[in-house]
Amino acid sequence: MKQIIFNPKILEEFFSDKVREYCKSCKRYGQKAQCPPYVESVSYYKKVLPKFEHGALVFQKFLIDNPANWKELGVSSSKEIQTKLFFIRDKLLADGHFGICFGAGSCKNCETCTFPCRFPDKSIIPLEGTGLNVVDAVKKITKLKLNFPVKDYFYRIGVILWD
């Protein structure tokens, strides 16, 4: 797993209502308390997230060695990134800093999501659900080009921001 520190101010140029619109094509749209349409607006995130002092992009490449296990790999890879993000966040909190995480895909903590979320301190908002163009932001921060459609591998991306 890799981690790159960045200045959150650069995120401001990557927010788009169009990205958020893509969420409507997700099979989990409207079913997760930490996903659109239940999270704040794109304009809210565009205003707030770039104001944090520090940011870290956390990412990992996952190989698709068996397409039959795609669903399990999707869940386990999301949880792996989320675990790393929460580890960093909890360390920051213990050191007296406020930190907030955004993860890869929808929250996968509970089998059945409740409204409101029962575990807001353990749940995560998908980065793309904020309206952030993750592909362009990752390219700017890391020079890494994310390719679609996914074939032999994919990346899971998460962000933590803190003051």
Describe what this molecule looks like in 3D:
With 163 residues, the chain is of the alpha+beta class. It has one domain. Helices cover 29% and strands 20% of the residues. It is built from four helices and five strands; from the N terminus they run βααβαββαβ. It has a five-stranded mixed sheet with strand order 1-2-5-3-4, with helices on both faces. The longest helix is centred in the middle third of the chain and has 25 residues. The protein is globular and about 45 Å long. The mean pLDDT is 93.
Compose a concise summary of this entry.
The chain is 29% helix and 20% strand.
Strand content: 15-25%
**Secondary structure: number of strands:** 5
Uncertain spans: none
- Walk across the major sheet and give the strand order: 1-2-5-3-4
Enumerate how many helices there are, as a single number: 4
Shape: globular
Largest sheet: 5 strands, mixed
Instruction: Give the terminus-to-terminus CA distance.
Output: 23 Å
Question: How big is the Rg?
Answer: 15 Å
How does the helix and strand content classify structurally?
alpha+beta
Number of domains: 1
Order of helices and strands: EHHEHEEHE
Helix-residue proportion: 25-40%
Structure keywords:
163 residues, alpha+beta, five-stranded mixed beta sheet, 5 strands
SSE layout:
Elements: E1 2-6, H1 17-22, H2 42-48, E2 54-63, H3 70-94, E3 99-103, E4 125-126, H4 134-142, E5 153-162
Parallel strand pairs: 3-4
Antiparallel strand pairs: 1-2, 2-5, 3-5
